[in-house]
Amino acid sequence: MCGRYVIASNDELSERFQLRQLHLDWAGTYNAAPSELLPVIVEDEGGERVLRLLRWGLVPRWQRPGSGRGIAPINARAESVLEKPMFRGLVAHRRCLVPSNGFYEWQVRDGRKQPYFACLRDEPLFAFAGLYDEPAPGSEDEPGSYTILTTYANPVMAPIHDRMPVILHEADEAEWLSRELTDPHPLERLFAPYPEAAMEVYPVSKAVNNVRNNGPDLIRPESAALR
Questions:
Q1: CATH of the domain at 184
Q2: Staple partner for 139: which of 48, 135, 196, 199, CB 3.0–4.6 Å?
Q3: Is 119 a catalytic residue?
Q4: How many domains in the chain?
C-alpha cells in the first residue's frame, strides 16, 4: 500500500511534468498523509496538463462529503479497479498523476514498525498512477479527491510489504493522462511493479510515524540501504 509519501517542493513540477502555469498556495511536504490537500496533475478538456490540489482519500461524486457513508480509500488495488463500481468509471475517464519524490513503507520488527523510504535512483521526481473525482453536486466549494493505485511488490519492496504504489514510467504518463483514451484495458500493462534495479530503499527515523513531523531529516538514511 501507500500511506505516506514525499512531495518536497513545487519548484520542479512545471518542467518535469510539462505544466504551463503553477498557481498553488502549497509549499511541499516530507510527510504527506491521508486527508491532506496535495498536488495532482490532470488533463483538462483542451488537452493541457493542470496542477490541482485535491484531498487524498477518494470521495466518490455520488457520496456527499461529511455524509458518514463508507470510507475514503487512499489506495486502490490495480488488479481489481476495473471490477469495482467505485473505481471502474474513474479508470476510464478520471485518471491523474500524483507527483512524488518517494514514499514510506513500514516493516514489523519485534512487534514494532520500522519505516523505510523508497525512491527512484535516477529520477528524483516521478509520478504514481492515481484516480480522482470531482465534488458532489451542491458541494462545489469542496475540493476534489484522489486515490493512488497499488500493485504487488517487486523483489526489493517485498521484504517490507507485499504491496507498493503503481509508479509510472515517464514515457507512459501521457497515455495514462489522456482523456481521449476511454478504454482502460490497454492501460493494464502499466500496473506492473516498477523495476527493482531502478529503486533504492532504506530505513529512516521513526519520527515519520507522527504526521506532525516534517522536514528533510525524515528521509535521511539510518543505516545501509537495502538496494
A1: 3.90.1680.10
A2: 135
A3: no
A4: 1
